[in-house]
Amino acid sequence: MENGRSILNQISGQLNSESFQQEHWQGTFEEYLDLVREDPKVTRTAFQRVYDMIMSYGTYPVEGKKGLIRYRFFDDPVNDGRDGIFGLSKPLMELVNVFKSAALKYGSERRVLLLHGPVGSSKSTIARLLKQGLERYSRTEEGALYSFGWKEEDGSILWDPMNGDPLQLIPLENRQEVCDHLNAGRDASKESDYIVEIAGEVCPLSRFMFNEKLKAANGDWTKVMEQVVVKRITFSEQDRIGIGTFQPKDEKNQDSTELTGDINYRKIAQYGSESDPRAFNFDGEFNVANRGLIEFIEVLKLDVAFLYDLLGASQEHKIKPKKFAQTDIDTVIIGHTNEPEYRRLQSNEFMEALRDRTVKIDVPYVTKLSEEIKIYEKDYNSKRVRGKHIAPHTLEIGAMWAVLTRLETPKHHGLTLVQKMNLYNGKSLSGFTTENVEQLRKEAKSEGLFGISPRYVQDKISNALVVNSHSSNLNPFMLLNELEEGLKHHSLIANDDLRDHYRQLITVVKEEYTDIVKNEVQRAIAADEEALTRLCGNYLDNVKAYTQKERVKNKFTGEYEEPDERQMRSIEERIDIPETRKDDFRREIMNYIGALSMDGKTFDYKTNERLQKALEMKLFEDQKDTIKLTSLVSNVVDAETQEKIDIVKARLIRNYGYDEESATDVLQYVASIFARGDIKKGSDAA
Prior knowledge:
By secondary structure, this protein is an alpha/beta fold. It is about 50% helix and about 10% strand. The longest helix has 30 residues, at about 495-525.
């Protein structure tokens, strides 16, 4: 067993002293100019740094979506996906495009970025990812940036409180000359060649120190620069360096000094004046967020007095500390708000200036089932939930209900809400193309901006895990009961009609779950490899004869007969192949087998999911009476039937992720349906 010393030694061995020294580098102003000449990106604006940080993680295309890409950064790979954003590829693309536009100084850098969406739609998570990403990026060589301070007579250093760029110390009349020197050999027309530009002035304190030292040096600027110490800075929200967060409080207690800093009254006696910058705390959220990012939580709840600071910081890149002139600031301003607050903004004429300076990014709920499932799988899995088995489809059913609450009723005649959800999830439906699905999305512009939050489902999953302590399993019915029970007290449901609609959707989801488990049990019963292979061979013999207009040899009589149309249709009907499409389907099968043969490969029915499903359903119909599954709901089961049931149960455990208890539960549930005579036949059962 390791003792305390060995643990300390292990941690010490993982710490990199060289990396620490690089992150805490200090040097002269002259050395900083050499750094800039070597790597001009150290002078990037806040928007440029955020954009480069996101792009440093790379991108990848969204499967099945032409033109859509995913930014790996939003998958949170550093934390193993802990804060990963699922779905929302289009909103995230819009957000990054704004960052790119701002990085290129096309105008977006003078706007407030407003993440707008319902509660629990990942707005705060996006802001948190950006803040944490900037912190990590500033610690890398690629993301390095620098600030400065002033040598004091006692040997101490008075650091610039707003972490300004040392290049801002260069007088206005000399800036172009310096930039020309620093940019020598670089092409401004190439996006890969970063061009140094010097914008803005130092904060009031550094301006005061500069002037004092310039007087002492009799106007010799170079001597003043010898009193400057340059250091590398790393962003930290905890240390309030480069990352600011502001959350509105009660309107009576709101004070704009929280944003722009305040007078330090204890130092007035020392320096003799309120207007001496040494007697001022430049520690407002805008001050500390200079060169980085500031997040405004529920930004539209800000008092009107705050809006002037917000507008100045976005449009003019300036803030107004009390008793001082306007001060330059370079920061990404990102806020988030929900729909009621945004509607209030639209109806408030006093907010017109803010609306004009805002870029709104809609962050809706996920409307793709597979992505919604991932949200819950991230928190409820075998690593996080110990001592309890989550039965198959439990999280899927919760996600299905949540997604259905966010969808608008289809305008397309005959299309159900469940079918619409399945189309969004990438499933095919006769008569619908990819273009049709895109049209459905365009017709429903507000989808995802209403409905049930993932937080509600997560709360009910947590509650179901605790409440059902008597069971070693959490199954879909336990979760659905919790979801329905919670609707009575859900504070965000506006009226009883909406509550009834959500309850009706729970009934719809129960029906979907019933179909899913019936299908699984049926496939488990029919999972006889040899019987399936024989059935497939017989089907293909008939299909080959049919497509080539030949006859089939009867293996019992030896006579040649017409292809068995009844047998072929009994299989095809189980996967909804209509009479009018049977010829196309049969030709597709034979063409596929022919293509495999040309490559020297043998056809396996398992490689064709639709055909495999059809064969399993047909075999189930042929075998269901022999297993006597309905005997499960009686008290007496004979040994032969029990043996067959145990085989089916083992298949459910092996192939579908059940454990002993949940497999028994689902078999009994499906058996009760058989006993009621509710089992559907043919394509309905599929």
